[in-house]
Amino acid sequence: MRNLLGEEALSAFLESLQQAPQVSIRHNPEKLKPNHHIPEDHRVPWHPFGEYLDERPVFTLDPSLHAGAYYVQEASSMFLYEALRQSADFSKPLRILDLCAAPGGKSTLIASMMNGQGILVANEVVRQRVNPLRENMEKWGYSNIAVTSADSTDFTALEDFFDVIVVDAPCSGEGLFRKDPDAIYEWSPEHVISCSARQKMILSSVIRCLAPNGTLIYSTCTYNHTENSENASWISESFGLEKIPLAIPDSWGIVNRHDGYQFYPHRLKGEGFFAAAFRKPEGKEKRHKLPSEFRSIIPINKKQIPQVSEWLKPESGQKIFQTVKGHLFFLPDELEKDFLLIDKYVKTKYFGTSIGEFKAKNMVPNHGLALSLHISEDIPFLELGLEQALLFLKKETFQLPLGTGTGWMLPRYKGLNLGWIKALPNRMNNYLPPEKRIRMEIR
Q: Is beta strand 162-168 parallel, antiparallel or unpaired with respect to 95-98?
């Protein structure tokens, strides 16, 4: 660090590591209240919906978090928004791959930028991290999503397929020392070299999937040249990708290295982070032969379509499918060909938006549908106060108001859906999935 910063800056850097990490969140623009105002001195400069908090609340006890109103994300990593805004054209539908996506911070950020257009593949190779990724994508509410669990080498068949690839690579984690002091004990020079080699292996597999004129974003949460600048130079030299210069105001405190952009906690309100943007040269794009059908899903019986469609907004072009176990979900019609190709080559865990399943002849809605941006506005709802909302999230029951009626309802907190209840003549059933319930005390 002395070589990177110099003696004077090193002192300020080391002092910053003794301070508490800055708490920040990124709002979901589709679930943000129109009257919500982020104070100027609380804005994350490089993201329009990023907000610094004065202190860390008990996020678990905020129903808005469970509804997908915001994501708790370290501010520096929100810079992905600015890097993509300047390097990719979001005025048209894009195919985007977030290769190392769990737990979902960058994928939810990208999903908001796409605003339901194009297709986002959120991939996580570590199986234990796939479910948190899926849950966060469900909370965000979009249907143009595929959650996959594949090694980077599994994507090589999709040559020239993606317009944008984001590789937030596994790294030595030097930028996390303030947030996670235990990470210090895992660090060693040998670990840095090992991480760099792994990063190159990942990049070697996936760069061939980038379409001509496509954008690659490479990032780490570390400081050293080996994983950052040296790898950025290696990308350009080995694959012929051009570095994309970004216009960064000096007031942001980001250091413009020749090969990328470095974040230091003594210069800005955020943790250690590095990012670089690249463009693949123009060329002839490979054409892929479409499979005739999906590997893992089938269309539903046409007779069931009206019964399922009444749970969704009356949007045109929805294709409803089911898994072999009978779980229903829908995909945007215009993305069927893209989903077909992804399903052919990559192990897919989740497509589109979950709807539910038929039990006997009745539709039982899925939790993901309640959080979706595509749910019908005609479904009855019940607005809850904080205490009742937390009881629902504890998977407990509570007294319904007189005259509530019976049937499926959406419990809401501040206008945001939390899940499903079913009101019966003498009681209510709470359909929150058991694995999602709050386990801490709420009183």
A: parallel
- Distance (Å, rounded) from C-alpha 29 to C-alpha 48? 9
Q: Residue 143 has which token pair?
A: 């249907």
Decide yes or no: CATH 3.60.150.10 for domain 2-279. no
pLDDT for the residue numbered 418 = 99
Do 297-371 and 381-436 agree at the fold level? no
Whole-model pTM: value is 0.96
The CA-atom distances, in angstroms, between 284 and each of 136, 159, 160, 280 are 36, 11, 9, 12
Give dist(CA 269, CA 75) in Å, integer.
7
So what's the architecture of 381-436 in CATH?
Roll (2.30)
Q: Rounded to whole angstroms, how far apart are CA atoms 395 and 438?
A: 8
pLDDT tens-place string over residues 22-62: 999 999 999 998 888 999 999 999 999 999 999 999 999 99
Query: Residue 96: is its pLDDT beyond 80?
Result: yes
Specify the pairing of strand 210-220 against strand 162-168: parallel
Helices 105-114, 130-140: crossing angle, 10 deg rounding: 30
Residues designated catalytic: 221
Domain-wise residue ranges, the chain = 2-279, 297-371, 381-436
Angle between helices 80-87 and 105-114 (to 10 degrees): 40
Q: Within a 10 A sphere around the Cβ of 244, how many other Cβ atoms?
A: 16
Tell whether domain 297-371 is in CATH 3.30.110.30: no
Judge residue 162's burial from the number of C-beta atoms within 10 Å of its C-beta, 0-12 exposed, 13-18 middle, 19 or more buried.
buried
User: Using an 8 Å Cβ cutoff, are 338 and 331 in contact?
Assistant: no
**What are phi and psi for residue 233, nearest 5 degrees?**
-65, -40
Q: What is residue 113's three-state secondary structure? A: helix
- Number of Cβ within 10 Å of residue 328's Cβ equals 24
Cα dihedral 222→225→226→230 (10° resolution) = 120
* Alpha helix ranges (H) inside 141-188: 183-186
User: Residue type at 168?
Assistant: D
Distance CA 404, CA 82 (A): 47
In sequence order, which residues have a C-beta less than 8 Å from that of residue 402 and are 6 or more positions away? none
SS3 of the chain: helix, strand, coil, percent, to 5: 35, 25, 40
Angle at 246 between CA 274 and CA 232, to 5 degrees: 45
| CA 262/CA 277 separation, integer angstroms | 12
State how far the Cα of 141 lies from the Cα of 137, in Å rounded to an integer: 7
Q: How far apart are CA 356 and CA 323, in angstroms?
A: 11
SS3 114: helix
Supply 216's token pair.
């690659």
